[in-house]
Structures are given as structure tokens and as C-alpha cells.
Write a structure and sequence with these properties.
The protein is α+β, with helices and mostly antiparallel strands. It has three helices and eight strands, in the order H-H-E-E-E-E-H-E-E-E-E.
Length: 139
């Protein structure tokens, strides 16, 4: 019974977890650095006044000016399963669309977005596995 209670607590805590206090579209770069520490690397991107801040574990934050607009991370555990996200978005009318065409052995990529949660997941055609998680401003 204790093991079940512990697993239930862990599952509930994981489902309600936020992305380290980052409020996309509002958090400043200085607030992000205060929260997460200095990034390992900074890369410019072809977006006016834009850059990517790279942290441990291939976690990335897109910045425009002084505001953090997006967060990118690799899925872990159940997050790698498309079914996990379909269940998580069950109360949200998700938007699904193709974002890249497949060619040769490379399959097309799709995104599943829940605007109310501020989350998008990327997966490949005919696959039940998620390759990237994107956090963005909630709508």
C-alpha cells in the first residue's frame, strides 16, 4: 500500500510540474539566469534580436530581446510516448499538423499542440514516439 501511495504521489507531482518557474513570454533572461544559472552556450538564430541559450541535458531556451519565448527539451520516460501526451491533452482541443515532409528513409514530422497548456510535442509519421517537447506561452 505504501508503494502505491508513493507512486501516486510521484505521478501527481510529475503531471503538475512546471518548467522551473519559467513563464514563457514573460520571464526575462536575467530571471532565467538567476533561476537556472549561466547557460553552457549561447547561439544566435535568424530571428531579429533572437538567440538560443543551451543548458545541461540538451535543454534550450529561445530568447527574443530580453524575453524567454520558448523552451525545448528531450522527452524522458513516459513523455516519449505519444499516448501520454494525448491523455495529458484530453481536456484540451489539441491542434495537430504536419511540420516537415518525409523523404527517402526520413519520415514526415508532426506536431501536437495544446495552446491552453503552452505545450507542443513533435513526433514522426507512423510513430508513437515523441522526439521533442516545446514549451511556449499559454493561450
Amino acid at each position: 500500500m505504501k508503494a502505491f501511495t508513493y507512486l501516486l504521489f510521484v505521478a501527481l507531482a510529475g503531471c503538475g510540474a512546471k518548467n522551473d518557474g519559467v513563464s514563457f513570454g514573460k520571464t526575462t533572461v536575467s530571471a532565467l539566469v538567476a533561476e537556472r544559472g549561466a547557460p553552457l552556450e549561447e547561439k544566435p538564430i535568424p530571428l531579429e534580436d533572437g538567440k538560443i541559450l543551451i543548458y545541461d541535458g540538451n535543454e534550450k531556451f529561445q530568447v527574443k530581446g530580453d524575453i524567454v519565448t520558448h523552451g525545448f527539451k528531450d522527452p524522458k520516460g513516459d513523455e516519449t510516448l505519444l499516448m501520454f501526451w494525448r491523455h495529458k491533452f484530453k481536456d484540451c482541443p489539441p491542434v495537430e499538423r504536419k511540420i516537415s515532409e518525409g523523404q527517402g528513409h526520413v519520415r514526415a514530422e508532426f506536431e501536437l499542440t495544446c495552446p491552453a497548456e503552452g505545450l507542443t510535442v513533435i513526433y514522426t509519421q507512423d510513430s508513437e514516439f515523441v522526439s521533442r517537447i516545446i514549451h511556449h506561452e499559454k493561450k
